[in-house]
Amino acid sequence: MKKPILALALAASGTLAVTSISAQEQTQIPGTMDVSRVAAGSYALDPAHTLVEWSVSHFGFNDYFGLFGDIEGTMTLDPADIAATEFDITIPITSVAVPSEGLRDHLLRPGEDGAEPDFFGAEPEAARFASTSVRQTSDTTAVVTGQLTMNGNTGPVTMAVQFTGAGQNPMSEAQTVGFHGRATIDRTQWGVSYGAPMIGSEVDLDISAAFELQ
Q1: Burial status of residue 122 (CB atoms within 10 A of its CB: 0-12, 13-18, 19 or more)
Q2: Cβ partners under 8 Å of residue 96, min gap 6
Q3: How far apart are CA 190 and CA 18, in angstroms?
Q4: Reduced to 3 states, what is the DSSP secondary structure of residue 159?
Q5: Each residue of 62-74: pLDDT tens digit?
Q6: pTM of this prediction?
Q7: What is the reported pLDDT for 116?
Q8: Residues 161 and 180 sit within 8 Å (Cβ to Cβ)
Q9: For residue 206, is it within any domain?
Q10: Per the domain annotation, does 146 fall within a domain?
């Protein structure tokens, strides 16, 4: 009798495991890539869940990565008129995060004896990106062009943007829309020329943004 009882126990255990997995699979993720969920209105960035990653070639050997956080900004969006979308984003330079504290100090070190800093200086103004045009390229993608102001210099930046999800955030209960954006800039055009071209002039930007409906 022991073998049949053991077999029944194992079968029951397997059934419970399958039922548990099925229940997990049926749990709906709050944000989905469904454009019909996007509401028109004014949005504000979620600074706790928005990041700008940058990468630059280090002497041609490999790429070095860093992040900016605590980003603030607004977006006006009407799914029926994507071309009218507007972004105004502010990136605090002093939020820069890298694994090396020594490098972070260097990035924010003021120039000595009145000289220009190597990178941003100890109290740099925040960088600001303000869109000037949005061109829809598919149901979920667009090309956004705007002006980036940084280090006292302003110049054009074009980025490819992809819609990644919309829905209600279960924590804040705010209707949320997410995007990924990619762009490449020549840092020397914004007065960040230390080590160029051995340290790459071109900087790749990878943006992950969450906007909450106000």
Answers
A1: exposed
A2: 66, 67, 68, 104, 107, 108, 120
A3: 57
A4: strand
A5: 999 999 999 999 9
A6: 0.85
A7: 80
A8: yes
A9: yes
A10: yes
Condensed to tens digits (0 to 9), the pLDDT of residues 35-55 reads 999 999 999 999 999 999 999
Alpha carbon distance 169, 147 (integer Å): 30
Which of left, alpha, beta for 110 (phi over 0: left; psi -120 to 50: alpha)?
beta
How many domains in the chain? 1
Distance CA(51)–CA(72), nearest Å, equals 10
Per-residue pLDDT tens over the stretch 143-160:
999 999 999 999 999 999
Q: Are 196 and 187 in contact (CB under 8 A)?
A: yes
20 inside domain: no
Residue type (1 letter), 54:
W
Q: Which two tokens stand for residue 106?
A: 């260097």
CATH of the domain at 207: 2.40.128.110
Q: 180 with 196: CB under 8 angstroms?
A: no
Task: List all residues 6 or more positions away from 167 whose beta carbon is below 8 Å from its beta carbon.
Answer: 29, 30, 31, 32, 34, 37, 175, 176
User: Which runs of consecutive H residues, i.e. helices, occur in the chain?
Assistant: 2-26, 101-107
16 lies in some domain:
no
On whether the CB atoms of residues 44 and 212 are closer than 8 A, the answer is: yes
The type of residue at 112 is E
Domain region containing 194: 34-213
- Say which DSSP state 32 is in: B
Enumerate the β-bridge partners of residue 45: 211
Distance CA 150, CA 131 (A): 15
